[in-house]
């Protein structure tokens, strides 16, 4: 079976500059002077700078006038200068602090008198505390709503990158099914998946790879042991990769051998629940309506109700992008209206305690015409990847 992943180009500096200007306009509309980004996915989103979290603040200030400052320890100056001068990054003044100095006081000097600062909602608590001490708690506010409102609406370039990542992972899932053999350990499967992701152009898969056999599939995030595969075991594999920082996250569940009649029945319910969720994704409808589409169908079959087992123990889906789990979510209580550009997982797992779990996970994005699958859902239990008689 031939493999094709749709082409996708890295995010350009022009797109990042447009993101910065959009955020600057949001800051002005809210009467805020700046947004501080910690070493999070939002730093990468706006500036192109990827940085590891540590006890030392390295981040960026986006000002309401659209300018950008970087803040880093003095000994990291040369490295930050190199990273921010890369072709797809955003240039800005680099402010440095020595080990005995406060980066929070340094950030405060860049704000106008009385100016209020929004803070990256994913930044560590010590960053929030340091800024609150330097500025006063009344001048520090949550930047999360501003960031989510912008990052949740993906551009065509982002959707292309997400599509490529997901196509790679779906092919890795297909290859893995054919590679499985009795006695193989979950750790061996994970190594295989990582190697295949890399071979196809993804950034590996070992950072996120859940492999469950048998009754371990009852646990939404898998068991803790290194289990060996046995004939007629249920197999649940949930994995993903990265392309230019954008995530895939696809789950397939099938049987290594002959499915029981009960497993076949539940698998079909899971497939239909995923389809009901997709059908419920209407532009302008609240995110929670997608969860209701799957959950109401399952409740009507006697599962649940709510999160009770046997049934669906978690939300139907989550947003995805530079973070594998992003807001908004397809969950009861999230009334965010569905808009074009939003991207979600669709994974209304079914758990039968003490027996097995079934999760089928694909992703979709909202277009101007409604939801569009990134990857086609599992074809059938006996032919998960739609390969026909050759499967």
Any key phrases for this structure?
391 residues, alpha+beta, Creatine Amidinohydrolase, Chain A, domain 1, Creatine Amidinohydrolase, 3-stranded antiparallel beta sheet, X-Pro dipeptidase, metal ion binding, metal-binding, Creatinase_N
Q: What does this 3D model show about the protein?
A:
- The protein is of the alpha+beta class and 391 residues long.
- Helix content is 33%, strand content 20%.
- The strands form six sheets. It has a six-stranded mixed β-sheet with strand order 4-3-2-1-5-6, sandwiched between helices.
Mean pLDDT, to the nearest integer, reads: 96
The helix content is 25-40%
How much of the sequence lies in strands comes to 15-25%
The name of the CATH architecture of the largest domain is: Alpha-Beta Complex
Specify the CATH class of the largest domain: Alpha Beta
Order of strands across the main sheet: 4-3-2-1-5-6
Mind telling me the CATH superfamily name of the largest domain? Creatinase/methionine aminopeptidase superfamily
Low-confidence stretches: none
How many helix segments? 10
Q: Give the CA-CA distance, first to last residue.
A: 10 Å
Structural class label: alpha+beta
What series of H and E elements makes up the topology? HEHEEHEHEHEHHHEEEEEHHEEEEEEE
What does the main sheet amount to? 6 strands, mixed
* Outline type: elongated
CATH overall fold name of the largest domain? Creatine Amidinohydrolase
What's the layout of helices and strands?
Elements: H1 13-29, E1 34-37, H2 41-47, E2 59-63, E3 68-73, H3 77-84, E4 93-97, H4 103-109, E5 117-119, H5 125-135, E6 140-142, H6 144-151, H7 156-179, H8 186-199, E7 209-213, E8 233-239, E9 242-243, E10 246-247, E11 250-256, H9 261-280, H10 288-300, E12 317-319, E13 326-330, E14 343-346, E15 350-352, E16 356-358, E17 362-367, E18 370-373
Helix pairs in contact: 4-5, 7-8, 9-10
